[in-house]
Write a structure and sequence with these properties.
Blueprint: E1 20-22, E2 27-28, H1 54-57, E3 63-64, H2 67-71, E4 92-93, E5 103-104, E6 112-116, E7 119-120, E8 125-126, E9 131-132, E10 141-145, E11 159-164, E12 174-179, E13 183-193, E14 196-205, H3 207-217, E15 228-243, E16 246-261, E17 272-288, E18 293-312, E19 315-336, E20 339-361, E21 374-389, E22 392-406, E23 409-411, E24 418-420, E25 425-443, E26 446-457, E27 459-463, E28 472-476, E29 484-497, E30 502-519, H4 523-527, E31 536-552, E32 557-572, E33 581-582, E34 589-598, E35 603-612, E36 616-617, E37 620-626, E38 629-634, E39 640-641, E40 645-655, E41 663-671, E42 679-688, E43 694-702, E44 707-715
Parallel strand pairs: 6-11
Antiparallel strand pairs: 1-43, 2-39, 3-10, 4-5, 6-7, 8-9, 10-11, 12-13, 12-44, 13-14, 14-15, 15-16, 16-17, 17-18, 18-19, 19-20, 20-21, 21-22, 22-25, 23-24, 25-26, 26-29, 27-28, 29-30, 30-31, 31-32, 32-33, 32-34, 34-35, 35-40, 36-39, 37-38, 40-41, 41-44, 42-43
């Protein structure tokens, strides 16, 4: 079967790009028996370089990612993506083909707090995860925190990805951009005066308007032109130095993906289309009082919306989901002697609309049109103190939350409905999140770090179904849905060698997860029950593992090896007879090998090899027919393991001869060098063989073959 709608495959220079399909037995294994250079987070000073021993001495304020290094990694179809590169940093499971999801230490994809200049980004992907929504030419700083999350961050269980765009007024006009095979981008910084500047960027693809007609012209599968897959995004912002000690900045982002798929007879799909769009904006005011006190105010808005139309088994279904978030946050910073204190408050208002809005079917289906928008508010107070005592450092913090589900809302019951008026408090949840971090320096070249923290998550993103189409519902905590909670324990030993030329680390972790959510199986049930809360299952989980990292920092040849050994479990009373089972994102082994080599001032090379144990999935062991009804018999839940995921990517960069202020380079890359057929999804195939005899087969669809690409990157 051709996965025609995943058009990135079409970019192979050979013009022959087909989804691969193989018959293969799936392994049944029912037996369930810091990473980058770090910087000190100094609020007043902009730190351009990291200390050579920062991984040893840094505290719990996160890992400052070296954007320059990540841009040197092999690219897919000419687009470097620092966000997607987080999958290779250690502690993050490989998400698989066509996915930029982050599964951090056994957590789910929605358990990561992703911020763009303080604004929430709910779905950070383009092209089914091939690209992220973050334009690499705009990213000035990216912080990744997977353990010891300080008290100023809240709302997620697993990690924080805090991305910031330009925050300083440039001295001259700048332009950065690239032209690739399926998309292009351009970003500019414009200094209006010595205290005011603007920046903007635009990215877009031209798959349907240029690539597909070109392939059709050369006789390559004319049916492809029935598909549509495009994305675009826009960034804009300003920086205004109001006074010597006061800075005002603002940003705006919007981006959209559109996909429509030709009829897929295997699933009886027809006229299937979906779109999703992120919008984020905000304004920040930073003021420096003196060398001890400063403050920061943020006012942010974000919106995520998705709509999917599915014509499935002669029934027309529409799914829509939307989440709007308004957020105001203020921080105060105090630096006094051995103490680095940060405290503040955060006010948030959310409005979520998780709806199955229509079912039109020739088959008699009873439709439940009960549904609600879910309004909620949250107030958070937090305090943390980072204390430095010779070889010791402690970061002790506390975050207090008051979350309320607000009206209007209708509680649908068989005995009678209860209506709650607008802004009436329906249900409140009070939670405390203690945070603790400790670091001890044995020497200037070795240290021990230990963290313990509790986290509460009120906004959930729950996958409903998957046929290669993203369809996740935004569902906040409410009258009937409790917030997710987690305890996270972590400890690690960090050791440098040869004057910090080599970094090594070994970390252990354990994470407990409460009030985990799963959607009930069955697409028909999903589309016939408008009250989403009725279809949820609630359970618990836990994960543990170890992470090993070795990195070389100096010389022409640099890079790192990151290895994860991990276990992830779930337990639901209504699933697997209440017995413990392996989570879908359980990957026993995960390894990333990254190397970068600078041959001379013009040529540089890089390579990336990744390997990960296959994801878990639940498949029937046998099937039989009774009264013309197909009965599926399942064994242990998630007992099947997909084949391992692995691939090798290579890239080379050639800096062209500069012409005055104009600089450019050519980037060459090969994705999946040895053409590994990595599994994308399982296809359940049914064939008739004789009267009343059905033949069932499992097939795996393979998505991305070897893909060479080239792009031209320019700077002015």
């Amino acid at each position: 079967m051709k996965i025609n709608f995943l058009l990135i495959i079409l970019l192979s220079l050979s013009y022959q790009v087909f989804s691969q399909e193989k018959h293969k037995l799936i392994k049944d294994s029912a037996d369930a028996s810091s990473i980058t250079k770090k910087i000190f987070q100094i609020q007043e000073l902009e730190v351009k370089a990291s200390l050579t021993d920062a991984n040893i001495k840094s505290g719990s304020t996160g890992l400052s990612i070296n954007i320059k290094d990540l841009k040197q990694l092999p690219t897919l179809v000419g687009e470097s993506d620092p966000y997607k590169a987080l999958q290779y940093m250690g502690g993050v499971s490989q998400a698989g083909e066509a996915s930029a999801g982050l599964y951090v230490r056994g957590g789910n994809n929605d358990q990561n707090l992703i911020l763009l200049n303080g604004s929430l980004i709910q779905n950070p992907t383009h092209v089914l995860g091939i690209f992220s929504v973050f334009n690499p030419d705009l990213i000035e700083k990216m912080t990744f925190i997977k353990s010891g999350i300080p008290a100023e961050y809240g709302g997620r269980l697993s990690s924080v990805v805090d991305i910031n765009t330009f925050n300083n007024i440039p001295q001259k006009f700048k332009v950065d951009g690239s032209i690739g095979l399926i998309s292009s981008r351009i970003a500019t910084q414009i200094p209006i005066s010595h205290n005011f500047s603007l920046y903007a960027s635009l990215r877009g693809s031209y798959i349907s308007s240029l690539i597909l007609p070109t392939l059709t012209h050369f006789g390559i599968d004319t049916l492809l032109t029935q598909n549509k897959y495009e994305y675009w995004d826009l960034n804009a912002g300003f920086i205004y130095q109001l006074a010597r000690k006061t800075k005002l900045s603002g940003h705006f982002y919007t981006g959209r993906d559109d996909i429509s798929i030709m009829p897929m007879s295997r699933f009886l799909f027809d006229k299937n289309a979906t779109y999703w769009q992120n919008t984020a904006s905000g304004i920040q005011l930073y003021h420096f009082f003196n060398e001890k006190w400063s403050m920061n105010h943020q006012l942010n808005f974000s919106k995520f919306e998705l709509a999917a139309n599915i014509d499935l088994f002669k029934s027309y279904n529409e799914l829509s989901t939307q989440l709007k978030t308004f957020n105001y946050k203020f921080d105060f910073f105090n630096f006094k002697g051995k103490h680095n204190i940060r405290f503040g408050s955060e006010f948030t208002y959310n409005m979520a609309s998780p709806h199955f809005v229509k079912v039109d079917s020739v088959i008699p289906i009873e439709v439940d049109n009960q549904h609600n928008d879910i309004h909620s508010s949250q107030v958070a107070l937090y305090f943390r103190d980072e204390i430095n005592l010779k070889n010791w450092q402690f970061n002790v913090g506390l975050r207090a939350n008051l979350y309320s589900h607000l009206g209007p809302y209708t509680d649908y019951n068989d005995s009678g409905n209860t209506y709650y008026s607008q802004n009436k408090i329906i249900k409140s949840y009070v939670g405390l999140e203690p945070r603790f971090f400790m670091r001890y320096l044995f020497t200037n070249q070795s240290s021990l770090k230990i963290t313990t923290s509790r986290h509460i998550q009120y906004l959930n993103q729950i996958p409903v179904f998957s046929f290669g189409i993203p369809a996740d519902l935004q569902l906040p905590a409410s009258l009937k849905v409790m917030p997710q909670t987690s305890w996270h324990f972590s400890g690690g030993y960090f050791r440098n060698f040869s004057d910090n030329a080599w970094e090594t680390s070994l970390e252990l972790y354990y994470k407990s997860l409460q009030h985990q959510l799963e959607f009930k199986s069955g697409i028909t049930e999903s589309f016939t029950n408008g009250n989403i809360e009725k279809n949820l299952l609630i359970g618990k989980g836990w994960s543990y593992g170890t992470e090993l990292k070795i990195r070389k920092n100096t010389g022409k040849f640099t890079g790192w090896i990151a290895y994860n050994l991990a276990w992830a479990y779930r337990q639901f009373d209504q699933i697997n007879q209440g017995k413990v089972f392996l989570a879908r994102n359980d990957r026993r082994h995960d390894i990333s090998v990254v190397s970068m080599y600078e041959l001379n001032k013009r040529w540089s090379f890089s390579s990336l090899f990744v390997y990960a144990t296959g994801n878990r999935l639940n498949l029937p062991l046998s099937w039989f027919v009774i009264d013309k009804n197909i009965i599926l018999e399942y064994g242990h839940y998630n007992a099947f393991e997909m084949p391992a995921y692995h691939r090798l990517d290579l890239s080379a960069s050639l800096k062209l001869k500069p012409r005055k202020a104009f600089r450019s380079e050519l980037n060459f890359s090969i994705y999946n060098v040895y053409n590994r057929a990595n599994p994308f999804q399982i296809i359940f195939d049914t064939k008739t063989s004789g009267i009343n005899k059905l033949d069932f087969k499992y097939k795996m669809s393979y998505l991305m073959p070897i893909i060479p690409s080239v792009s031209w990157v320019f700077h002015l």
